[in-house]
Amino acid sequence: MDYSLKNVRIAGTGSAVPARIVTNQDISNMGVPVKDDWIIENLGIRQRHIADNESTTDLATRAALAAMENAGIDREEISLILLATITPDRKAPSTACLVKHRLGMTNLAPALDISAACSGFMYGLTIAGNLIRSGVHKNALVICCDRMSSITDWSRRDCIFFGDGAAAVVLTESRYENSLFEARIFSNTEFTDGATVFEGDSAFTMDGHAVYEAASSVLPGSIVSVLLRCGLSEEDLTWVIPHQPSIKILKKMAEQLGIPFEKVCHNMERYANTSGVSIPLLLDEVNRAGKLKKDDLVAFAGVGAGWTFGAAIYRWH
């Protein structure tokens, strides 16, 4: 096995969302004390996709198939499957194993779940990317899927934040001489109750102020830490593809980075906060829209319950 240091390419992207759409007005009509214009102004959310009968495995499998098709890779060439979720269908086996079975893969590729909430993609991308760089794996499938509606109390005001979905990327070795992939992940466990499902509860509980303070700090901070490792500055960034907590947090992040908000991609207006799915879902949209050009310098960043957080810098090719 070749353990020489390699680099990484995002070879394909894919996503899947439930067909059902729930608007802000729909939630207001359910008796939740919120107004459509307040949600749009403060969170940037207009609607979200909510699963009816689709399971986490269903959505994750669809996203995985789309990513592999986009990459032009056969499923048996995948040597590692990482699946980030906080809404698994079963306690055992892992959702990654269920998806691998659903995909009809017969090789012995390891398949495991990651629980890092909204930073699930950053954890999966970093782990898989570095395993490819080390030569341990050649092709990795990183999937994120969360059905946040299954752990949401629809009578509470915080139900407005979340939506359901799945997204995936295929990572492979890069032979491009100007390739760049650098990623860092972190945790700060001083406030584990800030966003959680408490033991014995069935619904997600969140301290909105704590989330705002944490996200406003660690999103730009994580990006800067990776830029420094690469000898780059904020001005070098072409795009930022971040987690989608709220439009206000993303505007604050752009301000702290000193970059135009036009460089910050967002889609929470259509999907709300889909937890760990938000970054790869947005990446798939931007990729398929043809916005990403060769040598564009892209930053990914996310923060989730724990707190878990991280960022990556990638040169698109």
Description:
With 317 residues, this protein is α/β, with parallel strands linked by helices. It folds into two domains: 7-174, Thiolase/Chalcone synthase (Peroxisomal Thiolase, Chain A, domain 1, 3-Layer(aba) Sandwich), CATH 3.40.47; 181-315, 3-Layer(aba) Sandwich (Peroxisomal Thiolase, Chain A, domain 1), CATH 3.40.47.10. The protein is 32% helix and 24% strand. The protein is built from nine helices and 13 strands. It has a five-stranded mixed sheet with strand order 1-7-6-4-5, with helices on both faces. A four-stranded mixed sheet has the order 8-13-12-11, with helices on both faces. A hairpin with an 8-residue loop joins strand 9 (195-196) and strand 10 (205-206). Helix 3 packs across helix 4 (95-103). The radius of gyration is 18 Å and the shape is globular. The mean pLDDT is 94.
Number of domains: 2
- Specify Rg, calculated over alpha carbons: 18 Å
If you average the pLDDT, what whole number results?
Answer: 94
Work out the strand percent: 15-25%
Instruction: Please give the share of residues in helix.
Output: 25-40%
The main pleated sheet reads as:
5 strands, mixed
Write the element-wise H/E pattern from the N-terminal end onward: EEHHEHEHEHEEEEEHEHHHEE
Number of helix segments?
9
Distance between the termini: 26 Å
CATH topology of the largest domain: Peroxisomal Thiolase, Chain A, domain 1
